[in-house]
Amino acid sequence: MAEKKTEQRKVVADNRRARFDYEIGEVFEAGIALSGTEVKSLRGGRATVAESYVSAKTGEAIIYNTFIPEYLQANRFNHEPRRPRKLLLHKRQIAKIWQAVEREGMTVVPLRIYFNEQGRAKVEIAIARGRKAHDKREALKAKDWARDKQRLLRDRG
Q1: Are the C-beta atoms of 126 and 109 separated by less than 8 Å?
Q2: Against a cut of 0.90, is the pTM above it?
Q3: Distance CA 122, CA 10 (A)
Q4: Keyword annotations for this protein (predicted)?
């Protein structure tokens, strides 16, 4: 029997609120153009993607408002913590994202920043549609019911 391949990802930042506020559609994995001090700071496990967003207007995808704190040992060669950073995607992927935003009124939300198996920093972004308040309540009800159902099945069997 073949062994399962386990994914070795070191998640640096996770946008848990995005899964509650948005209906997640198609998910893309994008590289991110970083300077040396940004990579060092990410390896320390400190970053925030909660308020960030992605724009693909100029033919290239750029992530805005992602907070990567300054690397303390870098001295004067440090980076700006909230600077716009270029995302590395194929042109077809960028066109697909741009069409979804323009035609269907979707938004592009970053879900997490992580290091892949090769040690490269990646951003997981998704095309998403915003939820209304009643949709959020229904999602919470469904989640609670699934948890209660699991508990009942576990206690019974």
Answers
A1: yes
A2: no
A3: 10
A4: Cytoplasm, RNA-binding
